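Request: Not sure, any thoughts?
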Amino acid sequence: MIPVITIDGPSGTGKGTLAALVAERLGWHTLDSGALYRVLGLAAARRGLSCDDPISMAALAATLPVSFAADQVILDGEDVSEAIRTEEAGMAASRVAVHPPVRAALLGWQRRLARPPGLVADGRDMGTVVFPEAPLKIFLDASPDARAERRYKQLKGKGLDANLPNLVADIRERDARDRTRSVAPLIAAADAVLVDSTAMSIVEVLDRVLEEVRRVFPELVL
């Protein structure tokens, strides 16, 4: 079996950064499942489709013209790596992710990305639905205020306007939607290792997760 490490958790906890660092250390592939839903939301907006329509969203997901090359996300031949990282794209992703037909359409696509020598997959349901047999599952969490502050600094660093109270409200709204959806809600797998990054730096989080990697995969040289 191809080894898989899953990193789940709510928006803004640093799952993508952590997954990339772990994969780099191991020489494994990565799966940013959230990018798929963000691309889907962006594609829907550009086509004038409603993210709340499960039928049209499932049809679009089944034929989504997206590809991943290095650090680029390509939609319809255009690099949308930056476009899908906006707050609007994140909210659209949360809206399309509630539809069971959409998740079913993307499930096989995600599982096919598991290939040698291994995969680090981050998202909301990687350890509970997509890769339930993964030998190491991490659930990365942080307080809404801490996540909003990180996002605020990130946006300001890019020269973009940001309102901290609005970011906190958006994060709480998205958390509620992700945790209460009927299919694949945001929950920690029963065997997941819980890591609260509220008061931790990314270096500290990485060190903590690498401890678990060494425990589960003692044959790996880090």
In short: The longest helix spans residues 164-180.
